[in-house]
Amino acid sequence: MNAIIRWIPFIEGGRKKPFPVNEDEKERRKYCPIIIFDDDYNITSNWSAEIYILSNIKDNESLAKISYLSEEAPFNNLINNKKFKLFEGNRFIAEGILISE
Question: Do the Cβ atoms of 33 and 50 come closer than 8 Å?
Fold first, then answer.
């Protein structure tokens, strides 16, 4: 599934820089933060996302391909227009919305 990710500015507690774009498919760099969907804040249902940044749209927005790191994850969450938040540990670093490929 694709997603638009809006990175939280560093001054507000986010990352210093957004994760780099994956320009070479042979050397894809994945980024695996915790993903929590807006309608599911149950601590037992937190999973690691698998994210590949496809392009940077603006200074603080990226287009990304997103999935789960684990095969046991609830893939039924990956639906169009579903909103989510990304965390590194307990630090809120980004929010996004899933979009059709």
Answer: no
Q: How far apart are CA 98 and CA 66, in angstroms?
A: 8
Of residues 27, 21, 95, the one with CA closest to residue 65: 21
| Single-letter amino acid, residue 23 | E
| pTM more than 0.70 | yes
Q: Which fold has domain 2-99?
A: Elongation Factor Tu (Ef-tu); domain 3 (2.40.30)
Per-residue pLDDT of the chain (101 residues; tens, 9 = 90+): 999 999 999 899 888 776 667 666 556 678 899 999 977 655 556 799 999 988 888 778 999 999 998 998 889 889 999 999 999 988 999 999 999 87
